[in-house]
Amino acid sequence: MIIKFTLNGRSRKVDVEPATPVTDLLRETLNLTGTHVGCDTSQCGACTVLFNGDAVKSCTLLAPSLDGAALTTIEGLSGSSGSNRLHPMQEAFHENHGLQCGFCTPGMVMTAVALVTRNPAPTEAEVRHGLEGNLCRCTGYQNIVASVMAGAVAMNEPAIGE
Amino acid sequence: MSNIIGIGKAPRRKEDFRFLTGRGNYVADVKRPDMVFGVFVRSPHAHAVIRGIDKTEALALPGVQAILTGEDVAADGLGSLPCGWGIHGADGLPMKEPPFPMLAQGKVRFVGDMIAFVVADTLREARAAAECLAVDYEVLPPVVGVLEAVRSDAPLLFDDVPNNLCCDWELGDKAAVTAAFRKAAHVARLSLVNNRLIGNPMEPRAAIAEYNRGRDHYTLWTTSQFPHVVRFLMAALVLKLPEQKVRVVAPDVGGGFGVKQFHYGEEAVITWAAKKVERPIKWVADRSEGFVSDRHGRDHVTEAELALDENGKFLAFKVTTLANMGGYLSTFGPNIPTNLYGPLLSGVYTTPAIYCNVKVVFTNTVPVDAYRGAGRPEATFVLERIVDVAAAEMKIDRVELRRRNMIARDAYPYQTPVLVEYDSGDPLGCLEGALTAADAAGFSARKAASERAGKFRGLGFSTYVEACGLAPSRFAGRLGARGGLYESATVRVHPTGQVTVLIGTHNHGQGHETTFAQIVSDKLGVPFDGVDIVFGDTDRVQFGMGTYGSRSLVVGGAALSKASDKVIVKGKKIAAHLLEAGEHDIQFEAGVFSVAGTDRSKSFAEIAGAAYVPHNYPLEVLEPGLEEQAYYDPINFTYPGGCHIAEIEIDPETGTVTLEKYTAVDDVGTVINPMIVAGQLHGGIVQGVGQALFENAVYDEVSGQLLSGSFMDYCMPRADHLPNMTVETHSTLCTHTPMGVKGCGEVGTIGSPAAVINAVVDALSHLGIHHVDMPATPNRIWRIIQNAAMQQAAE
């Protein structure tokens, strides 16, 4: 079937089998391999993307559900391609050593962006609760939590002058 | 020169950008033209005879390219998966080493054992054919626990391995220990289980293999911590191919923790199959597949006895352990519960006599091998637990008992009674630092506050020492290592003075691209941004033993340091020629070669330029070019150590243990990048906390099925399980590594399980509890509390 959706700010039209998980569509068909698959029970969150602005584990979505929707993956988070610009949340992960092997990182960053969009000034406990659907085996989460707290501040900076 | 970022600084990581923007290149991301897909058929039974495999129906399905089984392996005369260690028992005889075929032959020995490899045009077709493969099993009774496996009536995994006993190993002076126990004022005794763990790096294992008939050349992309070792073991010993005809690439790897430091059968099978189908083959493990095929860790049953005099001085320590090896010997398998366990039983204490007996046992479970810490967390757990038991029994304060027995800072180098000689350390300094950082003095007030809220609060201590920087080859060879454990590095200076380092270690989260660039920036005075680190490709990097055992900085960094020194030596010769001075008058500092006592100088980049454009160059005595290589084999292990303090609270209504505070003061030697070291400590500590509170690999004793086979059943630590930790370093320098480094990759995992469980036991001590096995789950703790209440009511 043909589906039309907005992917990282650009409209896309794709012919897919209806039973295709969005992870497969992204990774195999569209060559967007930044969205990772770390489990087969929707427990790890490595495949988290923004689906109409919500953090969703893309292994739980089938491709037809994208029709008419807006999807953002890690590749599109900082805006259009062709530059080394980072989203404030990506920058915060870099600055606070919020990643080691990098495998959980795309999912963590997407979850964090959605979390801060809903709750612009989260407490540490709220950040920890908000990340409980994303597994990381490297960092012990401490620097990820610090990154999200810093990223929240940075994401809200433009609003300070208003 | 500007932008030198040297040792001790904390530049942000060079490798971050690609990971933060989804541009990492993990094996599962690799696509090759005309690629087909492979699926492994795995045994659903823990123990069974394979009576026959009928491929007919599966081969007839659409898209199927090949189905390979153990019979095909035997027909091609391929070798079995090698074990890298050959240890000897107390009787002097070599360990029992049954073959480990890459696809099962005749029998399966664990749930997940590989039966066949199915290759098809699409993954869906490969899966469909795998489902259809008809395997006729004669199911046998399995044995999954070590205590059961050594009984005389236990099922035997191998006909020629009586009692399923691989090796009955010992270390230490048994007679001295027996004599010391006779004169002891007190003997503390403890039985414990060190729970089986599954490492679960977030990236599942994967491999892609490709054969080029024109060049008779193979390429294997694999999720490996040591691609050169995979090439050597697979090419030379399993597939019997010339090594130079095989390229192994381990690109970005999503965490290892030991799980990816073995040569797996999947790697050999897919490489062998790639030639048969003459198309690139891709295999990516499901997480469920990883649970039943990634090598597991720990799994000990131990009896320990500590003899003390009337003042609490340790006189002797005796440990008897049954260690589970699973169904076959994995790459490092028998080395872990023996050589990496017994020599650590001295800890940071002056115990004069130690004896350790380890029975290494086969069972119908996934093979057990190294997992972060590997043997050393197990040793630390036994020792630090029994010290607490002894303190409680002798009514001596736990910290005071430790102080009385610690090796003094000025007693180093310190020869233990169990092989190893510690070069440096300051256990007491770490202990005192940790007591302050953890506000141990304020604990009683916090405990009182918890009590007012109806909660139990506990404080737990663990000191530790580990042997890492694996390893001095000569020493390891005496212990049974079949390979060397050195490392190599090449420093390739380009004509502009930029640098590429080719190194045999593998970076899968540890930040090597940053740390190693800092070392080069520091040594050669070149900009940090002008140094790139290349690893993980046998066609690009000369050789290497890879990354495990906290060895990358200690051994690889030393090779890099040596190679950098060689660059400076050659640079001085070039500079002497250009500056018309004697070689011995040339000084090198911060990227500038100068003639002592003059203002004449040449920059590093100028010297590099002269080496590649040798118009004015001493060609008679010096080769052009500026590239140096070094191999480094350490003369001893390094011995990081430290003190960890955990503070927990128990809700007696639910049995839930909450980690409230965690403090670590570690001696890791010289710190190159404190930000990266802290990150290693955080992650290591949480893996140990995971063992203590959450994680447990559980097998059904009757069926041999893995019951904890998914993230829904195997509890991984999550962000909301944990507090912020306090990690500090209290460093003494290693006396034999070039930069004084000791390594930091495993210390967190080694110190933390004992600290957490000691805190849990402390919180329950008013109930008469003296030990709690891991993991301290709500269920286990609630039962302990209920049983204690019933017992008290009965009394």
Automatic annotation (TrEMBL), chain A:
A matching Pfam family: Fer2
Keyword Zinc-finger: no
Residue ranges constituting the 2Fe-2S ferredoxin-type domain according to the UniProt record: 1-77
Keyword Repeat: no
Keywords: 2Fe-2S, Iron, Iron-sulfur, Metal-binding, Oxidoreductase
SUPFAM superfamilies (alphabetical): 2Fe-2S ferredoxin-like, CO dehydrogenase ISP C-domain like
Molecular function GO terms recorded: 2 iron, 2 sulfur cluster binding; metal ion binding; oxidoreductase activity
InterPro entries referenced in this protein's UniProt entry, alphabetically: 2Fe-2S-bd, 2Fe-2S-bd_dom_sf, 2Fe-2S_ferredoxin-like_sf, 2Fe-2S_ferredoxin-type, Beta-grasp_dom_sf, Diverse_Oxidoreductases
Protein name as catalogued: Carbon monoxide dehydrogenase
PROSITE patterns per the UniProt record, alphabetical: 2FE2S_FER_2
Automatic annotation (TrEMBL), chain B:
InterPro entries (UniProt xref): Ald_Oxase/Xan_DH_a/b (IPR000674), Ald_Oxase/Xan_DH_a/b_sf (IPR036856), Ald_Oxase/xanthine_DH-like (IPR016208), AldOxase/xan_DH_MoCoBD1 (IPR008274), AldOxase/xan_DH_MoCoBD2 (IPR046867), AldOxase/xan_DH_Mopterin-bd_sf (IPR037165)
SUPFAM superfamilies: CO dehydrogenase molybdoprotein N-domain-like (SSF54665), Molybdenum cofactor-binding domain (SSF56003)
The UniProt record lists the keyword Oxidoreductase: yes
UniProt keyword Cytoplasm present: no
Domain Aldehyde oxidase/xanthine dehydrogenase a/b hammerhead: 21-141
One Gene Ontology term of the molecular function aspect: iron ion binding
Keyword annotations from UniProtKB, A to Z: Molybdenum, Oxidoreductase
Name of this chain's protein: Carbon monoxide dehydrogenase
